[in-house]
Specification:
Chain lengths: 258, 129
């Protein structure tokens, strides 16, 4: 992405002529024109069936201090394809506010790829918002599997059920390869369905004509080492019921080197 | 206990590792904004995401097949008319594909020597516009 340096009196100038000229012209192009380019580019990928699978993920990432990129990515295949994106600036680019553009990104993709293009949406804890999950499930027919923050009532509910042994806890042992080395990982998983203690979600579902909406949630505790077992378990929440918690488990961070 | 096969949340890793990390470390999206102007940044991001997708598609099996077939077929069809390095001119929503010789001629500086195998009428009559 470097520009082309120019020769001046036999010395190589460090001035990136191409980039400066290019940026000056780019700033004259309006946001709507770039949006059209985005839609045309993505539409051609769908038309040629290069975007396969119905599992998508949404996330944001900072571009320096002032900008934030939020992208909706098809993660079904081994090569992810970015199907919708938006650059946020100013107050909208603050971490935590990025989830507000999720609706627009999803609407854009459904418009291009069809109303059943997305079956499952994966997101991190910033997107764990009741009305948003409800909108996905009951308005758009999209299931969601989202990381559940520890400060949520639902998290504490599942934890309470597990500690009181009211729901079963299963132990799993598996081998993971990290940079060519095999590691044994052990986790304990607890899952519970028919949870209705998330007011935001149940209220929004009720407004959509589903008075008895419930959620499924699971806790995943890494028990590979005594140190890891001391940490708070990771939790996931979903609008659909999974066979058990291990079926929904995330990629856990690699174990610490000893 | 036997391990189940469906690990539903794991593909989310693709957006962290194979998308944002690629965009920032591979495509320089974070280091080079192409200016402080928001419009320039949006343009930069759009062009980079489209290029990223194009690269991803070419790495797919289907993309590799398409690329190989399309390039050979295009070369067979257009080589005599357009030469090795045709120019694509885009203007006001329309585009045309021209041989460099023809483009130079249109611009008032005809080439002194043509490298085309046989030039009768260089602009493809059925080229999309």
């Amino acid at each position: 992405m470097d520009g082309i340096a120019t020769l001046t009196d036999g010395k190589r100038s460090r001035c990136r002529v191409i980039l400066i000229r290019c940026a000056m012209r780019l700033s004259r192009v309006g946001e709507s024109a770039w949006l059209k380019a985005q839609q045309a580019g993505v539409q051609s990928l769908y038309q040629r069936q290069f975007v396969r699978g119905k599992v998508y993920a949404v996330d944001g990432s900072g571009l320096g201090d002032e900008l934030r990129l939020v992208a909706l990515v098809c993660v079904s295949a081994t090569r992810p394809i970015i199907v919708a994106w938006r650059v946020l600036s100013g107050a909208a680019s603050e971490k935590g506010k990025e989830a507000e553009v999720t609706h627009a990104l999803i609407e854009r993709v459904l418009e291009v790829a069809g109303p059943k293009a997305i079956s499952l949406l994966l997101a991190d804890a910033l997107y764990a918002d009741g009305p948003r999950l409800s909108w996905l499930k009951y308005r758009k027919g999209i299931e969601a599997l989202v990381r559940l923050p520890e400060d949520r009532l639902l998290y504490q509910d599942v934890q309470g059920l597990a500690e009181a042994h009211l729901i079963a806890c299963t132990h799993h042992r598996y081998v993971r390869t990290v940079q060519g080395h095999k590691h044994i990982r052990e986790v304990e998983v607890t899952a519970a369905g028919d949870l209705s203690s998330w007011d935001g979600k149940t209220l929004a579902a009720a407004s959509a004509g589903v008075p008895d909406a419930t959620l499924w949630a699971c806790l995943i505790r890494d028990v590979t080492t005594p140190e890891a077992a001391q940490e708070a378990p990771m939790a996931l929440v979903s609008t659909r019921r999974w066979q058990h918690g291990f079926a929904a488990r995330p990629r856990l961070p690699p174990p610490l080197a000893h | 206990m036997a391990l189940p096969r469906g690990l539903a949340y794991r593909p989310r890793w693709h957006i962290e590792d194979d998308t944002y990390r690629e965009l920032k470390e591979g495509w320089g999206l974070e280091k080079q904004h192409w200016g402080r102007d928001l419009a320039a940044a949006i343009g930069r991001v759009t062009l980079t995401c489209l290029a990223f997708n194009t690269a991803q598609v070419y790495r797919l099996q289907a993309g590799q097949q398409l690329a190989a077939v399309a390039i050979r077929r295009l070369r067979r069809l257009r080589h005599r008319e357009l030469g090795n390095a045709p120019a694509v001119i885009y203007l006001a929503g329309c585009y045309g594909v021209f041989a460099l010789e023809e483009l130079l001629s249109l611009l008032g500086s005809p080439a002194r020597e043509s490298l085309l195998p046989a030039v009768k009428k260089t602009s493809a009559p059925d080229a999309p516009t």
